[in-house]
Amino acid sequence: MSNETRIQKVLSENGVVSRRKAEELIMQGKIQVNGHPAVLGQKIDPYKDLVTIDHERVYLNQKNRKVYLMLHKPRGYVTTMSDELGRRCVKELVEDAPERVYPIGRLDKDSEGLLLLTNDGEFANLIMHPSHHVSKTYRVTVRPSVTDEILTQLSSGVEIDGKMTAPAVIHVLDKQPGRVVLQITIHEGRNRQIRKMCEAVGLEVARLKRTTIGPLKLGMLQPGQWRELKPAEVGMLRNAVKTMEETNPKKLEKQNQRKERGDRKSEQKAVSRGGKGLSRPSGKGFGERRSAKSPSRGRNGGFHG
User: Fold this and answer.
1) Could you state, in order of their start, the residue ranges of all structural domains in the chain?
2) 67-115 per-position pLDDT tens digit
3) Could you write out the three-class secondary structure of the chain?
4) pTM score > 0.70 for this model?
5) pLDDT tens, 178-220?
6) How many angstroms separate the Cα of 146 from the Cα of each of 140, 157, 158, 304?
7) CATH T-level assignment (fold) for domain 5-58
8) Does 108 participate in catalysis according to the annotation?
9) Domain 64-131+219-247 falls under CATH 3.30.300.20
10) Which of 19, 61, 208, 291 could cross-link 46 (Cys pair, CB 3.0–4.6 Å)?
């Protein structure tokens, strides 16, 4: 019996990378199977084939338990497991984790705060997928100051990279001459989104710290430290995704459109069935059939008893 499975699925199920990321790496020529560049959709045998990413072997089909970590990423670290420029990576901070884990999403080098890591590819994709709109909250120190107009722009949406951002929730936490601390909650995950939003309204970001992902809070975890998530916390994140899916305006709109189309089709079928064999409505009501003994219709349309 063949154990061959598509390489993207194998990598995702083993918690290496998400399927989407695997496809990107394959297209970039960074994944090899038995020394040869992998191709999209290629099937592999995780028991026999040797898979490498950036020339580093990936160990597949290990009976590892699923691990979910929260890391307080410090500034100065890049959110990768290796860096060709020799910069410090978050991998250095979780080398003592019980299993090999990978970041869910990213924080740029100059940002800090809550970062999730796991070896569960399905869970990582669940949290990262843009359609799930998992909320993320940041504490952002900006210069020089903010006005009501700037706050309105940020909360209603600004254009970055040629596309408007979704509405955000903005709170002013502290305001001093030449310096303001904002709390910004977004439901998107675009590259460097908070920094680009602030730049679009003329603000300089002096410091950026992520404090929550969905219902999960960073709390008192110190920079550079990590801890395992409790099962209840993992469940909270899964439930948050489910809730966002159920209340997603675009999804609800599509559901309503499908329902309306279905209702129209049902009405059309009912009319078609009810009017079958009738040239015009009878006195008994539209759609009601006459029995064989019913009076016949005369030439002028009247009924003859």
Assistant:
1) 5-58, 64-131+219-247, 135-213
2) 999 999 999 999 988 888 889 999 999 998 888 899 998 899 999 999 9
3) CCCCEEHHHHHHHCCCCCHHHHHHHHHCCCEEECCEECCCCCEECCCCCCEEECCEEECCCCCCCCCEEEEEECCCCECCCCCCCCCCEHHHHCCCCCCCCEEECCCCCCCEEEEEEECCHHHHHHHHCHHHCCCEEEEEEEECCCCHHHHHHHHHCCEECCEECCCCEEEEEEEECCEEEEEEEECCCCCCHHHHHHHHCCCEEEEEEEEEECCEECCCCCCCCEEECCHHHHHHHHHHHHHHHHHCHHHHHHHHHHHHHHHHHHHHHHHHHHCCCCCCCCCCCCCCCCCCCCCCECCCCCECC
4) no
5) 999 999 999 988 889 999 999 999 999 999 999 999 999 999 9
6) 12, 16, 15, 86
7) 3.10.290
8) yes
9) no
10) 61
The CATH classification number of 135-213 equals: 3.30.70.1560
CATH fold match for the domains 5-58 and 64-131+219-247: no
Annotated catalytic residue, options 83, 108, 110, 263: 108
Per-residue pLDDT tens for 224-240?
999 999 999 999 999 98
Torsion sign (Cα): 11, 17, 23, 27: negative
Q: Token pair for residue 43?
A: 């099937």
